[in-house]
Amino acid sequence: MLIRLLVLFLCLTSSASAGQIRIKDLVRFDGVRGNDLVGYGLVVGLNGTGDGLRNSPFTEDIMSNLLERLGVNVTGEEYRPKNVAAVFVTATLPPFARAGAQIDVTVSAMGDAKSLLGGTLVMTPLNGADGQIYAVAQGAIIAGGIAAEGQAARVVQGVPTAGMIPEGARVEREVDFDFASLNNVRLALRTPDFTTAGRIEERINRELGRGVAAMLDAGTVSLDLARVRSPSPAHTLSRIENLAVEPQMVARVVVDQRSGTIVIGEEVRISRVAVAQGGLTLRVEEQPAVVQPNPFSQGETIVVPRTRASIEEREGTGLAEIPSETTLSRVVAGLNALGVAPNDMIDILKSIHAAGALHAEFIVK
């Protein structure tokens, strides 16, 4: 089957208005980050699609502990319900989340449950990396998959053993972080680059005064908040996060062979090179014929094999020249001028890169 090809053009214009990006979209502020939470609990209300307790004994332990806390004595009792499942619950505590805030949680089966559709998560504490409880989750699960089965067949679409609960956890403990007392804040670039970091430093100093921002390396810009006359660090960051800076793009070609997607950056350049492309198609077809015996001959029905094999040679492009290009549009026009099939474009780019004529970072997924 032919690979589908989709060429995306990341054309950033040279004008300042079209190529500038807000600083808040280019960096992460040091200390302003989320915290991962995890817990395990019990989902009830399933329609016979829960854990098999023989294969998942921990489900019975969780259920026994829960019932004991609710005052129900189940010591020595044997029960085999099919509408409960043990699950892991994960969430991210956002920065500056306050007690009483609600966050989304993800619920995933940890046993052999077939589906979490229609289930309800029972009160589950969520712990941070330090072992402290920061939130408590509970609510009806929204699962994204569908499962149906009969006596001889079963069909599954999506993942019915995982789901989420929007705003399903309530924050009970806040992360201790005195942001107002900071004297220095570091900006971490999402894509480290010396030119981009230098432009951020220059833009901030032009706004707040010389010496406030200092580039430490390709991925870090430090802010000296003591030099800024501002009520608080939060006020200072609110002044700089919407300042526009034009980032320097890295020349890069990204190829996803599975989907046939090619992404070409604006800075990609190709030296003068000649390309010839062609290919063979080998086709083997089996068309067996069934031969029946004559009536009353007491013969046997036999299958006569019939195979047809052929080799087809596609007409190549000949030897085509791609001149040295200076813009992305001309590079793409030169590649399209070859007139090759979509599934051959990836191989051509690989060959041009191997020949040293593609001046960009070549990434294959």
TrEMBL record:
GO terms for biological process: bacterial-type flagellum-dependent cell motility. Keywords: Bacterial flagellum, Cell projection, Cilium, Flagellum, Periplasm, Signal. InterPro entries: Flag_FlgI. One of its GO terms (molecular function) is structural molecule activity. Residues 1-18 form the signal peptide. The basal body constitutes a major portion of the flagellar organelle and consists of four rings (L,P,S, and M) mounted on a central rod. Belongs to the FlgI family. This is Flagellar P-ring protein. The gene is flgI.
